[in-house]
Amino acid sequence: MNKTADICVIGGGISGVAIGYFLLKNGAKNVLLLERGHLAYGATGRCGAGIRQQWGTELNCVISKYSLDFFETAQDELQYNGDIEFHQTGYMLLISNERELEQMKKNVALQNSLGIDSQLLTCEDARQIVPILNTDNLLGTAFCQKDGHLNPFHMTQAFADAFKRLGGEIMTYTDVTGITAANGRVTGITTNKGFIAAETVVNAAVGWAQEIAGIAGLDLPLFSERHNIMVTEPVEPILGPMIMSFSLNLYCQQTPHGSFLMGRTDDAQPRDLRMTSYSGFPELIAQSVVNVMPALKNLRVLRQWAGLYNVSPDNAAIYSAASDPKGFYTAAGFSGHGFMTSPATGQSMAEMILGLPPTLPWQRMDVSRFDSGELLLEPSVV
């Protein structure tokens, strides 16, 4: 097989298909997307399915708000023949210490100044929204009603279907084995299915982003680490918003189908490409969640899985164009929130590649910030 593309996107997660869609929407032609497995094989299909605007840096607030606004109309804009299951049931962020309270006050003030309708709640007000919440050890919560749940598989497929309808091509089960260049510019990609001639390549491989960059002769300041999630049996609705705590290290939501999905960070997890789950996780996350919602203690566990966070030094994404080889672009380092910011990623990368005026301040997300010291330093991650 020998093929030619104007632009080749590597990665069939939601970021990759969003980039492909926005490229074509903004006037690109002959765009080819490559995925080593099936669509949403990696981080997207293993994520926590949450969408939030409650961040601690202006940039993350802005790109998250842009993305949420897109999701609100995505069903119609993408003409998806299905249900993306976007339910704006809110995000409630638990506050368990004075330091966190001060940070949340700053976060809410910032968010409100940017048009995000978040608020601080007393424990009593929080229990009005989540009656099963144990607030004995809490100082309050932060809450935004417009945040919520989105189905990662349907949303990825919606982007993919729209991408193909605009003329894009998707090749699944296609491994990238090499990236060729001549005179300082990308010339193509070698794969297990043959050579693809292309002068523009977009690295949206997320967990494998540094691996793909290495093939192109680049060294990105990223690492991938394993994160685990557990899901329970479905029960009648008893929880509306996603419950999240940075200090208590947990997130938990009841999906539209009734199951509870929950996860946490574990610093002992390996920093490599393993996506196998580990046996100690269910007990760890169950203890964390039951402490704040005791009513969940008798739920039966169905299964657990693991996926990759691709992490940058400041917990913010990298949108970047390489100077050598020219024509090589990167969208990676999402640090656990690539799913919820995928529309911003797609639009920003399309503008960068096509030389269009910026809708969002994506210039600040260039990889050069790690050399200049202009870090974004997002405090609100779990």
How would you sum up this structure, described in words?
The protein is α/β, with parallel strands linked by helices and 382 residues long. It folds into 2 domains: 3-46 and 153-221 and 314-372, FAD/NAD(P)-binding domain (3-Layer(bba) Sandwich); 87-148 and 223-311, D-Amino Acid Oxidase, Chain A, domain 2 (2-Layer Sandwich), CATH 3.30.9.10. The protein is 27% helix and 26% strand. It has helices at 14-25, 58-77, 98-113, 123-129, 152-165, 209-215, 281-292, 342-354, 369-372, and strands spanning 2-4, 7-10, 31-34, 50-51, 91-95, 118-121, 140-144, 148-149, 169-171, 176-182, 185-191, 194-197, 200-203, 223-232, 242-245, 250-254, 260-264, 301-311, 318-321, 328-332. An 8-stranded mixed beta sheet has the order 6-7-5-15-16-17-14-18, sandwiched between helices. Strands 9-3-2-13-20-19 form a 6-stranded mixed beta sheet, sandwiched between helices. The protein has a 4-stranded mixed beta sheet with strand order 1-12-11-10, with no helix packed on it. Strand 16 (250-254) and strand 17 (260-264) form a beta hairpin. Helix 1 (14-25) packs parallel to helix 5.
State mean pLDDT (0 to 100 scale): 95
CATH T-level fold name of the largest domain:
FAD/NAD(P)-binding domain
Main CATH class of the largest domain = Alpha Beta
What is the H/E order?
A: EEHEEHEHEHEEHEEEEEHEEEEHEEEHH
Low-confidence runs: none
Oligomer class: single chain
Biggest sheet details? 8 strands, mixed
Shape: globular
How far is the first residue's CA from the last residue's CA? 43 Å
CATH superfamily of the largest domain: FAD/NAD(P)-binding domain
- What count of structural domains? 2
Strand order of the largest sheet: 6-7-5-15-16-17-14-18
Shape-level CATH architecture of the largest domain: 3-Layer(bba) Sandwich
Radius of gyration: 20 Å
Name the structural class. Answer: alpha/beta
Strand content: 25-35%
Tally of extended strands?
A: 20
Helix proportion: 25-40%
Total number of helical segments? 9
